[in-house]
C-alpha cells in the first residue's frame, strides 16, 4: 500500500511525530500537560499526519495527556503506544478513543538478543503474542500500527514471518525501527525492500521507518527507507529522543523538499512553521538547540566568512540551498523598546508565530514592558524567551516574588527570598558558597526536597552586557529528571526561576516535595 496524493507525481510520505513519546522519554525532557497540549496543537496545525501523544499505561499523567490530546486534535491521527500486553493495549485504546482519528501503536521485540535476554521467549511464542495482541488492538480501533522492536538486528526470515502475522491480524502500518541506531542506509533500504518483496500480504500495509541517531545516521536511514518502499517516517522536533535521539522532523522534511530531484516524495508539512515548532519544543523540554543544528540552529543561515558573505551579497544561491524564510526564519524588521506599544507588540508576536489568549497577551505585555525598562533594545530572541517562560509558568504552584542577594569578594554570600507557594507567601534567608549556592539553599529551605541538581548552565540570549541570561536547570527525583529554563537580565533571578520551574515540573509529576512553610 502506498500513500499518494491525487494530482501529484510524487508519493506522499506520512510524517509521524513522536516528540511527545520517544522525545519526552529521554532523560530531562519531561513536559507538563499544558506544554504537551501546546506542542500537539502546533504539530496538528503544521500538518503532521500522525501525532504519537504518549504511552498511556506508563502513568496516570501520560494517560490524561494522551486522552486530552485525542480530544483536542481534529485533523491529525492521534496514536497511543502499547507494549504487547493486554492491559497496555486496553489502556491505549481507552486513551485515544475520543480522537477524530485514533491509532493504537503496539510493539514487541523480534531480535534474538531481545528475545533471549529481555523477553525470555522463543520465536514461536513471540509470533503467537503478535497475533493475539494485534487482534485485540484491532477489535478496539481500526487503525493499528505494529512495530518490530530492534528490527534491524532481526534475521530477515523471522522478521518476514512476524510482519506477515501482524498484517494478517489486522495491522495497517508496519514499523521496522532501527531501535539501537546501528543500521547503515544501504542495509536499512535493503531490509524494507526484502520485507516488502517477500511478505505475501505486504501490499495491505504502509511501511514505516523509525530511526535512532546513535551513529548520526537517523535522517539518512529514514530517507533510504523511502527508497526501500517505506511511506511513513517517524521523527521528532529537534531530533530529541532516547540516547542520541530520533530522526529530526525538520531535517527529513527539508531534505525531501530541497532535493526533490533525487527524492521524489512530498509531505504535508507547512515548512514555514518549522522554526516556531523547534523553538516551542526547545522551550517545553528546556533542551537547547545546538547552534549549528541543520535547519533550525541559530547559525543554520548565518554566513561568517568573507568569501561566503561576498557570494551571498551577489547571489544568495551561491551559498544557500534553501531560504531562511522557507523554514520560517523572519528577518528582524523591528527592534522593540520601551516606547513600543501594544499594537507593535501584538504585531511582533504574530510575526514570531504566537497567538496568545487575551490574559496571556496581557501578562506577556507587562513582562515585556518591565524588560524594556531594563534593556534598551528588546530583540526577537528576548521576546521568545519571555513568552515561552510565561506559557511554561502559567500553572506553577511555586512562584518567585522577590530575591535579594548579597555577593562580592567578602563572603558569606547571602540570599533573601520571598516565594508564593499556592496562595501563601513565605520568606527565608540562607548563606552559600557564592550567590547561586545561596539562592538554591534558600529555595531548599523554603521547599524541602530530595531532588538532585544534575545540570546548571547559563548562556546569553543575545549579545551585549545587558543581554538576558538564560539559565537551564536539571533536577532529578524519584527516578525522573526534568529540565527547566528561565531568562532574565539578572543571572541570579533567572537561576532562581529555572530552579523553581524544575521543582514545579517535578511537583506536577507527583514527586514528593514538601512546601513546608506553606503547609504551616
Ligand atoms: O525505537 C523503538 O524501537 C521504539 C519502538 C517503541 C517503536 O521507539
Ligand atoms: Zn524509538
From TrEMBL:
Listed SMART domains: LeuA_dimer
Pathway: Amino-acid biosynthesis; L-leucine biosynthesis; L-leucine from 3-methyl-2-oxobutanoate: step 1/4
Role description: Catalyzes the condensation of the acetyl group of acetyl-CoA with 3-methyl-2-oxobutanoate (2-ketoisovalerate) to form 3-carboxy-3-hydroxy-4-methylpentanoate (2-isopropylmalate).
Cofactor(s) annotated in UniProt: Mn(2+)
Region described as Regulatory domain: 399-520
Organism from which the protein derives: Microvirga lotononidis
Binding site for Mn(2+): 22, 210, 212, 246
Name of this chain's protein: 2-isopropylmalate synthase
UniProt keyword Amino-acid biosynthesis present: yes
GO MF annotation list: 2-isopropylmalate synthase activity; acetyl-CoA C-acetyltransferase activity; manganese ion binding
One BP term from GO: L-leucine biosynthetic process
Entry keyword annotation includes Metal-binding: yes
Domain Pyruvate carboxyltransferase: 13-275
Keyword tags: Amino-acid biosynthesis, Branched-chain amino acid biosynthesis, Cytoplasm, Leucine biosynthesis, Manganese, Metal-binding, Transferase
Catalytic activity: 3-methyl-2-oxobutanoate + acetyl-CoA + H2O = (2S)-2-isopropylmalate + CoA + H(+)
InterPro entries in the cross-refs: 2-IPM_HCS-like, 2-isopropylmalate_synth_dimer, AIPM/Hcit_synth_CS, Aldolase_TIM, LeuA/HCS_post-cat, LeuA_allosteric_dom_sf, LeuA_bact_synth, PYR_CT
Family membership noted in the UniProt record: Belongs to the alpha-IPM synthase/homocitrate synthase family. LeuA type 1 subfamily.
GO CC term (a single one): cytosol
Family annotation (Gene3D superfamilies): 1.10.238.260, 3.30.160.270, Aldolase class I
CDD domains in alphabetical order: DRE_TIM_IPMS
Subunit relationships: Homodimer.
